[in-house]
User: Fold these one by one.
Assistant:
Number 1:
Amino acid sequence: MHRSILLSAVLFAFVAASTFGPLPVRASDDLHAAEGAKPGSYEDWCAEHKVAESQCTRCDKSLIPVFKATGDWCELHGLPKSQDLKCNPDLKIVRPPKQGA
Ligand SMILES: [Zn+2]
Ligand SMILES: [Zn+2]
C-alpha cells in the first residue's frame, strides 16, 4: 500500500521532470531575425537583446571587433556604446517600422 504510493510519487516526479525540464533552444523564429533579414528593416531585430539583429554582438560575436574598430565599444559592459543602456540610460533603441504592412 505505502509502497505503491511511494512508487507513483517517484513516477510522477520523473514524468514532471521530463515534461517541465529545460525547454529546448528554439530556432530563430520570433526572438531572432531570420537568416538574410535586410539590415535596418523591421525583420532585422533581436527581440532578446532589443537591438538590430545585424548589430547584435551578443548573438553574433564576430561583430565585436567591428564595433571595437570604430571605437563604439564599452569594455566594462562588453557592449557597443550605441547599445549600452547601462552607460547611457537615455539611449533609445527602437525597432524600425514594418514595411508595407
Ligand atoms: Zn541578440
Ligand atoms: Zn557600459
Number 2:
Amino acid sequence: MRHHFGRVLARKDFNAGDFTTPLDGLAGELVDLDAYRKAVNLGRKAFRGTHRDDADPVVDVWVGHVRAYADEVPDRLAGELADEANAAQAEEGSTVESVLARIDRKLEGLRSSVTRYADPPWGAGWNGYGAQLQQNNILMAWVLEDGADHCDACPSLAAGGPYEHLPTWPGYGDTPCRDKCKCKVTADQESWDAALGEAA
Ligand SMILES: [Zn+2]
C-alpha cells in the first residue's frame, strides 16, 4: 500500500515552535564581533592625531545595537518557515519531500536576513574615526555619498553642522536609508587646523 505522506503531514499544522529548536543559538552567532572591532580600528587609524581611548566604547555601541536586531531573527525565521511549511503542505499532491524542498528554498531566500548582521555596517568605521575627531575637539561634517539616491534625512544632515556631536552615524539605522547608508564623515577644516595646526 502506498504511503500518502501528504495526508499524514496534513494532520498537523506547523507552527513557529516546530522550528525554534534547530534555530537555537543562532542569534549569538549572527554578529561577528571581530569584524566590528576591525572596522572600528580601521576608522581610528585614519585619524593620525592622538588617540585618547581604545576601540571598545565604539564597538560596544554598534554591537549592542545590532544584537538587538539579531536577537529577533530566529523567531522571525521560525514563523516564516512555519508559514511556508503550511503552504507547501496545502499544495495538491504534497509529500514530505516537497514540503522539505520548499522549506529549503525558503531558508535560502531568507539568507540575507540572517547574514545582514554579520558584517559591520559601513558606519562603524566612520564612528571609529569620528570618535577620535570628537576627542580632539574637531568638528565633523556629514558628507553625502556621491551620486546616490538619498533618503529624506541625509541631505539635511549634510546641510547642517559642522557638528561637535553628530546626531547619528551613517548606517546606524536612524536615517530612512538605514544600514544601506553610504554617507561619510569628514573633519571640519577650520577646527582641524585649530586643533592640530595646519601642517597636521
Ligand atoms: Zn545616507
